[in-house]
Design goal:
Number of helices: 12
Number of strands: 2
Strand content: under 5%
């Protein structure tokens, strides 16, 4: 029983930290209707940059997080540039950037696939030293704090003129272009901000788990989509934009809790990506099946 509680606590912490990444995926997937595959690479990029800056450059852990977010923004800007300037389809542009980032991340870490931070000062160790609380509580408090700040920032930003234009681009690109808005610019900015959040999340996860790994972002887009779908199911009736952003983080926590429970029940850890894919596929297919069934039922009743 104690083992299950520890696993659930770790799952909640991981869910909150990864929830920052899910916010980034929410911007591209929900607002622009783009499944940005850059995420897998930019998440690892944030972690690798953060680890190297803290370990080799002696940079303050908080400053390293800012650099990790900036690195993610650069990755997103590259994808946006390929998509908007050279008119490469968004999903292909994301794949190209993701593939390129694999080699870049290896170079950043000096050719190593893993960089440990076991004896290095991190933001989490500092909070533990200041307050005396355990690592799980420190990670949870910091994660929740960063998530609240990011949600508040996004809520404010998407209420501004440029933010509203970005949301309108996803809703009706032709209409907002007719209003004189440069939709290429709004897409580029959205991809940049999105991957900045992903890079920040990668830096947080890196400092939390005390290492950066070349494969730490593998499957991040699937996790992000699964979390968004779960959040929609749980909080879909809430209409405000702030609640929708919050649902992304809540969905991330629920996803990691589900994963922890399934692993405790004996499921092979190698099958977790399959479970994630099934969750996303089912959640996306069910509404379509229900809608078709209702249309068929209404047509049948009308014919009678």
């Amino acid at each position: 029983m104690n083992g299950l509680l520890v696993s659930l606590q770790d799952a909640v912490v991981q869910g909150v930290l990864w929830g920052i990444m899910v916010l980034g995926v929410y911007i591209t997937y929900k607002l622009l209707d783009i499944a940005d595959l850059t995420v897998d690479g930019s998440f690892a990029l944030g972690g690798c940059v953060c680890a190297v800056m803290v370990l080799n450059r002696g940079m303050d852990p908080w400053a390293a997080l800012i650099v990790a977010a900036a690195a993610g923004m650069v990755a997103g800007a590259v994808t946006g540039f390929l998509h908007t300037v050279f008119e490469i389809p968004a999903i292909l542009a994301g794949i190209l950037t993701q593939i390129g980032l694999w080699s870049i991340n290896l170079r950043i870490m000096g050719g190593k696939s893993n960089v440990p931070l076991l004896k290095t000062d991190t933001i989490f160790s500092r909070i533990i030293g200041w307050t005396g609380i355990n690592k799980q509580i420190a990670s949870l408090l910091l994660g929740v704090g960063v998530a609240i700040v990011m949600i508040a920032f996004l809520y404010w930003f998407f209420g501004t003129e440029i933010g509203s234009a970005m949301r309108a681009t996803g809703n009706n690109e032709a209409m907002i272009r007719a209003q004189g808005v440069n939709t290429n610019w709004t897409k580029l900015l959205a991809l940049t901000i999105s991957n900045g959040l992903v890079g920040l999340s990668g830096g947080l996860v890196c400092q939390s788990q005390k290492y950066a790994d070349i494969g730490m972002g593998t499957g991040a887009i699937v996790i992000g989509l699964a979390a968004i779908v779960i959040g929609d199911v749980l909080m879909g009736r809430l209409r405000s934009f702030g609640s929708k952003l919050t649902s992304a983080v809540v969905g991330s926590v629920i996803y990691f809790v589900i994963r922890a429970v399934v692993l405790r029940m004996g499921m092979n850890a190698n099958d977790m990506k399959l479970l994630s894919a099934v969750i996303v596929a089912v959640a996306l297919c069910v509404p379509v099946v229900v809608r078709k069934w209702r249309l068929k039922k209404a047509y049948t009743e009308g014919g009678e």
